[in-house]
Structure formats: structure tokens, C-alpha cells
Amino acid sequence: RGIVERIGDAISNPRPLVGLSEMIINVEKLKDAPEVYPDFLGIEKTTTLIRSPPGTWKTTALREIIMALKDKVHDISSLPCFIWISYRKSLSNESKAKLDDLKALGFRICNYQNTLGDLSIDKWDIIIVQVESLFRIEFTARPFVAILDEANAIMRQMSSGTNARESENAMRDVLRSARHVLAMDAFANTSTLSFLQAYRSENIHVVDNKYQPRIGETVEFIYDPNSGAEAMRIGYDLLRQGKRVAFVSTGAVIARALIEKASKLSKSDNSPVRACAYYGDMDGKQCQRDFSDINVAWDELDCVAYTNTVEAGISFEVTGHFDIIIAITNITTPVHVEALAQMLYQIRDCPRHIVSLFYQKNSNELFRPPGHENIRAELASARPNNLHTAIKGHREWNNNTISYKVDESPAIITFIEVEHQKRLFARYFIEKLCSLIASTGASLQLIKMDESRGVIGNRKRVRNEIRVEALVIKNTDFNAVATSRNLSSEEAEVLKFDQECSIADIMALKRFYMRNLYCKDMSIEDWNNICNRKFIENFSSPEARKHFLRLSYFRRQGHDEENAMKELKAEENIQWEIACYKAEENLEKSVAEDLRKSYSANHWKAIREFFQILGFTGIDDKRILPGNIVSEAFVQSCERFIEIRNQSLSLFGFKSHAKTTPDLNSAIKAINAIAGNWCGYTIKSDKKRIGPKGQQVWQYSYRINRQPYNSTGFGDKGAPELPPYRPKPDNEIQELFDSIGQNK
């Protein structure tokens, strides 16, 4: 089905949320049902999961309950310590601001960002901490309560990133040691429940608040192929009329571009529109100041735009301030659909909501099927180098099958649940978004774009202006990084943890990270010469960084492509034999050693064979091949191509959409998707007319394109240099080593 049909069906028949019914309530504000919260003074361990829609005062009720506990004890220190776990710094800031009422009553409240060293539960009564910093909690004999604010997002956070293993270990200690665990989420589901059950053996008390706070409201949906230009036009027209508009964006550059455009508008009384953008890399001091009291900060603004990286810290409660909330998103956005739904309701009491959807295919877009068994099979078959950080140390080596078996630890259960939900929500983004919004009681309506002549022209103008603003912002950022100061490792380490980091400091950090990756051994003078705006633009993307790391590792293995493949395979065989030998004695150590490998020989073998199937000698072949040579080579190797393509799910983590019986064009598309994602190399075709006039035909030629970054590649002028292959060993020395091996 097409996207328009999918949107229409999802709006007409939104699916209800998965039932979690154990205790069902229907209250507008949870403070009217205090019995659903745990008895925090009880000595028996309890675990409670509360699912309640946005705007039902979950944290407000909890704050009042904690406040009332003061009157039930002779001393606050005899209460359990409350560890308030969040998943974003902005949410930690917002939680701290809301809990300041408790501070006035004598509660000792600690925000982890403002305290160095360990966070002792004896020293503090309430500790607000982000997932990644849970390891700083110092346990004592004092009992404590773990509060998981936005439990689904916490699950995603603890299973992702380079510190996933440390986060999971710390979370395990907290959840297993806590006397009471309270998890809250507007969109809790069966995965949330499985997560809690994995860490807490006792029964989970589930509370499902069926109240629908948005009954009577309508959320309007627009499908706009012009990247949301119609919704932007509506917003700007309202700003000119003196209305107040909040834009929700899944991209920081677009959010900033929307505000740049809005700031240039005038209201009906000729006063300027006051606007501000909120995103992950914004000025640290402004972020700290505004999020300490968002009601005061936004009450002075006519227009705001915010992204998912800061939405957790937003809870704007000034009634009737904003006239409309406009969300603009690509259907293929990496932002989780739950986060987008939450973003719509971070501003309370707004009379109108618009969701503008568009589809823009991402380059090398990959598909991974959801399903618990699918994901478990992927984890079991994944080569050690391709294993996610959160899974390290959680697989057993099986000597009989010569493969890994994934264990049943809470870390594995959590990772699989998170990955399943992520894939499911990405695959059914439209349907899930409509389901989540409808669960609040809001009606859904698909509206058509205004196609009158004047409006069409205005819409095109808005689209072009936003594109120009976005381009200016990108170039400004590239220039800022290119002209930033050079940081030492010590300075970078300090800035990394500075909560009031300025824009200039953020740009300097980005420059530091790029030098550390691409030009670590280069002199300062040479680095300053190469690090210009074009360099930053071409090589700051995650894709370029990933490709550079993989290609660099490959080239360090041998003295040429053929030798590198042999060395990779030999090294891999040795390490797998070591892992197999040590598995029974010390599983964790052997697996950890096995995981030190960077990239598997099997991946590079597949990439190399893909190019050889088309007649190239391998990855480094720089020849231009005529079309007839490529066609003949493909016909002869078609069966091998099908074999490699069918292995793509286990090797590269996705399934190809190529035809069952491929032709040359579909095969090249599949190769470009796989190789382009892996190392940036793709097959590029060129054509020209040949023959006498009137009888001309197209002649095709093919080459391996190594310039995916704005027609620039590694090794080009002004680009990072890949490390050279290792020097070829002296023949006499090599013969000596060979003879020694033969004598043995």
C-alpha cells in the first residue's frame, strides 16, 4: 500500500494500546488515586508499573506523596532514599526544579550533574540521576526507592551507546537492591513489563489509567511531500496574526531554520516575533537557565521549536499560551515514535495540533525485521566484532555447533525487547503514531493541503526559504568547527562533562573528535591547513567516520588487498580457536578477548566478492569496465551473488530487497546498499552514445566509486588519508620464517 492509504487507514482505525490490565482506574489526576502508588514505608519489596496518559500529573502526585511522608516519621533521614532515574539531562534539570518544594521542607536533594564523586544514599534523601551515571550511587544499609521516570526511554537508553554494559550493570544493582521500584510511562507496553520482570522476581503490580485527557480535541494530519512546507506556512501565517506557535521537529537543523525564519517575521501590531530553538547542542548556560523554569522562559516567547533531545525536560503548564503545536517529521526518522508522541503533549492546554508527515528515503536505507526470535537468532549468529556493546559477555560458546548461544540474562531480555520495539515502531511508524495519539482520547483527522494558487506560491516560497536557512545553518556550523581552537585531551575531557558548555566549546569538541579520528598523528600546522569548512562538511557525518574506521582496519592487516584478506582470516581463525579453548574455563574472559577484534574477515570477503562478481579484481580495482564485460561476469557469477545476498541478514544485519532472480541492475542496487553502508564504496555506471547519426546506441561502463562524500573520497586532496597497507616483508626474511615453520 502507498503512504497516503496507510495514513488514511491508520487515522480511520487506530489500534488500541496493548492491554496490561491488572488494576484499571479512570482518573483525571493521579493524585486522586494515591492508593496506586507503593507504600514507601513498607518493608516488603514491591514493584509497581503505572501506565497513565500524558498530562495526568504522574510526577506531581508522586511529589505530594513524598512530601506527606515527612509527617509520618520523626526524622527525614529515617525515610528511604529516593533515586529518581531519568534518561536525559534536560529531564534531570526539570525534575530538580519541580522537587525544589521538597527542599524547602528539609529534604536533601542532589542533582548528579552538580555533584562530583559518589552519590551516597546516606548523604542525600532524593538523588536525581541519569541512566549513564547510576554507577556513582553508593549503597549503604539505608533502604531506597528506585523511580523510573519514562521507563520505556530508560530501557532504550541503558541498552544503547558505548556505556551500555556499565549502564546495565548499574541498573541491575539498583533494581535488585531497591526496596520499592516504581516505573511510570504514558505508553508502557508488554516490553516494559518484561523488563521489570527480568530484574524483579516478585509480582509486578500493574496500574492502567484509562482516562483520556484529550477527548474533544482533534489532531490534524497532513501528508506533505514538500517536507512539511504546508504546516510551516500555516504556522507562519498564524504568527503574523499575533498567534503563538510551537514547532516540534525531529531534526535540530530544521528546528533552528524554523526559528530563524520566524524571527524575521512581524506580528499584526508590527512588533517582532520572539522565538527560540531548543536542541541538543544549544548553549549550555541558556539550557540550564531556561529548563530550570520553562514556564517563565517560554511565557515571554511567541514561537518555540524543540527536538526530541530536549523534550524530556519540557513541561509547559501555562494555560492557553500557545495557539497551535505543529509537528513535522520524516516517516523514516530515527527518532522513536513514542518520543514524537510525547513531544506533542509537553505543552499542556493547547487547542490545536497538526502532525505533518513526509517521506524522504534515507541513503542506504536498511530493513531489519522485528520479532524476538529473529533478534535472538541474529545475536547468536553475529560475529563477535558485530556484537552490540550491551550483549558482550552474555553469550556461551558451543563446541558442538561452533557457534554462540545467547543466555537468558536480564541484559539480553532488555536488549531484545528494546530492539523489537524499535524495529516494530520503525516499520509501522504511521500506524503506531496514530495509535499512541488516539490512546489519549484525541480524534484524528486527515486534512488536505490548500491548493489555491496564492497558497501554492506561498508554500513554495516558505519551503525554499527554510531550505536556504538550513543550508546557512549547516555552513555556519561547519565554519565554526573549522575555525575553532584546538583542544588538548585534558581540556576535552573537562568540557565533555561541563553542563554549561558554550556553543564555541561544543564546536571545539567536535573539532577535537575529528582530529582524533582522522588526523591524530598529523602536526598541528598540517591539521590547521586541512581542517577547513569543506573538510568538516564532507567528513563529519557518522557514515564517513564509520567507513574510515573500517577501511583503516582492513588496510592495516596486510601489504595489499589479497594479503589483508588472508591475514584477517588467519587472525580470525586463531581467535576463534582461543575462544573455543578457553570457553569452559573462563567464559567472560575468553569472550572479552574474542570481542577485541574490529571487523570480521567474512564481511570483507563478501564485499570483495560482490565486486568480483561484476568483473573487478577486488576492492582496490580502479579500472573502468565496459558494460559487456560486467554483464558477462555477472551472468557467470549470478548463483554466487544470490548466495552472498542471502547471507546478508546474518552478516550485515539486514535483508536485501533485490529480486529473487536478479538482473544486473537489481544486483547493482543490492551491492550498493550493502557495500555503500559497510565502507562507502558503490558501483557507478556511466553511459554515452556511440555509432553513426541516426543509429546511435547507449554504451555503458562501470567503476567502483570511492567518492561518496560530496564527490570526495579518502585520499583526495583536502581529505583524510587512509593508512597505507603494511610494508611488504623482505623476501629473505619471509623465506626464513617459512623455513622455520616447515621445520616444525
TrEMBL record:
Q: Which InterPro entries match?
A: Replication_origin-bd (IPR003450)
Lineage, top-rank taxon, reads Eukaryota
Domain Replication origin-binding protein intervals: 26-212
What GO terms in the biological process aspect are recorded for it? DNA replication
A Gene Ontology molecular function term for this protein is: ATP binding
| Stretches for region Disordered | 709-732
Protein name (record) = Replication origin-binding protein domain-containing protein
Q: Which organism is it from?
A: Rhizophagus irregularis (strain DAOM 181602 / DAOM 197198 / MUCL 43194) (Arbuscular mycorrhizal fungus)
